[in-house]
Amino acid sequence: TRRYSSNRRCRLVRVIEASPRRVTPPCPIVDRCGGCGLQHLNHEAQLDHKTGVVRELLARQAGLEPGVLEAPLRSAPFGYRRRARLAWHVPRRGAPVLGFRQEGSRDVVAVDECLVLDPVLATLPGRLRPMLASLRRPRDLGHVEFTVSESGDGSGRAVVYLHLVDDPSPEDGARLAAFAETAGAYLYVGMAGQRPQCLY
Question: Phi/psi class of residue 74: alpha, beta or left (left: φ > 0; alpha: ψ in -120 to 50)?
């Protein structure tokens, strides 16, 4: 689909003979969502691919070739991602969309639940979207970031960052506070050029 000086970008048309390392992705929107692109590989193949990417970068950017490779750090195949940035789009017609951008596009693919996100964050997109759509000026929201805050007992708590154009109105503030309490999340609101403030 595109030519570069040293490689080509291609699109899979069909699988004639599947690799033993190819698996059926469990995510129902993996073919559209640009959030992750390796779900067609089993876990070992994903680790090998990521190791190869790091080695190639070290060789190309720094001229380094490691003599000994340490075993890769391992996590569970799913539920490992503890940080995410989601796009927010309010179309002229239809419902607002919260999700990841489609690969190679500015389009936003709606995500209600994400298998690769930490369980603390996995269902947040679907729960957050209706509340964001109810804000007085939903178009004033730029994007949304999630992360996990560790507590002393080892449990995690969701942290949500909302990037707004202006301070939320008192009515919107009440909606945000109610969501944070219901979701058990820390909620930060920040405007362009300002440090986010933990409001709820």
Answer: beta
